[in-house]
Specification:
Elements: H1 2-13, E1 15-18, E2 27-33, H2 37-45, E3 56-62, E4 65-75, E5 86-92, H3 95-106, E6 110-111, H4 116-123, H5 129-140, H6 144-154, H7 157-182, H8 192-221, E7 228-234, H9 240-248, E8 266-272, E9 275-281, H10 293-308, E10 311-317, H11 321-326, E11 340-346, H12 357-367, E12 372-373, H13 382-398, H14 410-427, H15 432-450, H16 456-463
Parallel strand pairs: 1-6, 7-9, 7-10, 10-11, 11-12
Antiparallel strand pairs: 1-2, 2-5, 3-4, 4-5, 8-9
Helix pairs in contact: 5-6, 7-8, 7-15, 8-14, 14-15
Length: 470
């Protein structure tokens, strides 16, 4: 009885599924994984398993009826995809053969849940969570760039080693902090300068990788993946549509003196400096109380572009720049992660003798760059503006999939963002106990990237995205 109970327990942990796509085809692949794999497959084939990783021809039976003559591959643990005993049955792909084989297996073990084979691989140390997400993206890829990106994510050795370097730095700083708290009277244990320098360097590295995610996300979402996104943002009647038309050399947007003429995003694809660009004209940003519900939605989309575009051209005039930069809708835009800003004063042909010193000083002191003065009417200043825009686009385009972007999913982005947030919290206080707490939070978020520290809810969310046979 104990032997039967033990075999039944093994069978409940052994799973099967069709791993190839459903429907009629030449060959279908059925995968079995778990502790009872060998005995189950030997019962199906009425013969012993072949040598490991050597393709062998076997008949498959359901009781005394032959279901098919198939090719069988045997992968004993731990040298298999899941880390368990695995058998692959390459059967003829007719509906009747596949359903017959699955029916026979269903009497001996259970059907796999979505992503369960990959989950077994993760739990048995064959993959980390970065590789799991890369595998899912590879299966879901539909374009060349998506495939290349997924393969880069799947081959995560460099990513994993960099995360480990970040972890070592945090562990070292946390240990020094704890020692300083426990043995504060001992000299040279830890200094705040060392902590600040180390954490600031980490934040700088992480911000660099957070910046590349906007490009990677557009590739995965299939949104004009090769384009750099450039948004023109400003108040009504500052010349946003005129600038779009001049850059695109076409009348793409209606130009009018009536405020609120542009109510939605107007997109134009073009080449700037040899790089594909999606140029976006946005609704004029002004007080929402002066707008109807359609214009309010347009303004919401415009402010969203402040956070999502690769390059934002802030367009204003000498007359309205103070109101624009003091607006509650724009006063937090410098903190937008990964976005490059260009500050442009239009209608320079109307300035005449008016002083521009105050505007120049404001932009220089707050954003550490020079304001650019142009006229969409006369083309004055366009050479300077075009040169700066091309340089920004070139910089963004070169931070591409071929470089060292290491954040491939929204989950990874959010985890790194939380690490940065915890590190900034640690830097914002001189209380060592709070700093130690924030470093432990940062370590937890960092551990969730690879699965060293995670929760069952996170795992279920990741693995349920897979098809049943994976």
């Amino acid at each position: 009885m104990m032997l039967i109970a033990r075999f039944s327990h093994f069978c409940s942990k052994t799973i099967y599924s069709l791993s190839s796509g459903p429907g009629k085809c030449a060959i279908s692949i059925v995968r079995v994984s778990g502790p009872a794999t060998a005995s189950i497959v030997e019962k199906l084939t009425k013969t012993r398993l072949p040598q490991p990783r050597k393709a062998s021809l076997r008949q498959i039976f359901e009781e005394d009826e032959v279901l098919d003559k198939s090719m069988l591959l045997w992968f004993p643990k731990p040298n298999s995809f899941t880390g368990e005993d695995v058998v692959e049955l390459h059967v003829h792909g007719s509906v009747s053969v596949v359903s017959g084989v699955l029916s026979a297996l269903g009497k001996l073990c259970r059907l796999a849940h979505p992503g369960e084979f990959t989950k077994k691989a993760f739990l048995n140390g064959k993959m980390n969570l970065l590789q799991v997400e890369g595998l899912h993206d590879l299966i879901e890829s539909s374009t060349t760039e998506q495939r290349r990106l997924a393969l880069k994510s799947l081959d995560s050795d460099y990513t994993f080693s960099l995360y480990n370097e970040w972890k070592k730095t945090l562990v070292n700083q946390a240990a020094l902090l704890d020692a300083s708290i426990d043995f504060g009277d001992v000299d040279n244990i830890h200094t705040s300068q060392e902590l600040y320098k180390s954490l600031e360097e980490l934040i700088c590295q992480m911000q660099k990788h957070l910046k590349t995610y906007s490009i990677i996300k557009r590739v995965k979402d299939g949104i004009k993946h090769s384009n750099v996104l450039v948004a023109i943002v400003g108040e009504p009647n500052v010349g946003k549509s005129s600038l779009l038309n001049r850059l695109s050399r076409s009348q793409s947007a209606i130009v009018s003196n009536i405020p609120g003429t542009t109510r939605d995003l107007i997109e134009k694809s073009l080449s700037i400096g040899g790089h594909l660009v999606s140029l976006i004209d946005t609704a004029g940003i002004r007080k929402l109380s002066d707008c109807d519900e359609i214009e309010v939605e347009g303004i919401r989309r415009a402010t969203h572009m402040l956070k999502t575009a690769d390059v934002v051209v802030h367009l204003f005039t000498l007359h309205n720049w103070k109101d624009y930069f003091s607006s509650s809708l724009t006063n937090d835009f410098p903190s937008s992660s990964g976005t490059s800003f260009i500050f442009v004063c239009n209608k320079s042909d109307l300035i005449h003798d008016q002083s521009t010193n105050q505007l120049r000083q404001f932009v220089n002191s707050n954003f550490r760059q020079d304001a650019i003065f142009i006229s969409c009417l006369t083309s004055d200043g366009f050479d300077t503006f075009s040169s700066v825009l091309e340089e920004r686009i070139k910089s963004i385009a070169h931070t591409s999939l071929s470089d060292d972007g290491l954040i491939f999913t929204q989950r990874q982005h959010d985890a790194v963002h939380e690490v940065v947030s915890s590190l900034r919290s640690a830097l914002s206080t001189s209380d060592e106990s709070i700093q130690a707490f924030e470093l432990r939070n940062a370590l937890d978020h960092l551990g969730s990237l690879t699965g060293v520290v995670t929760s069952e809810d996170i795992l279920e969310t990741i693995f349920k995205k897979f098809c049943i046979g994976k």
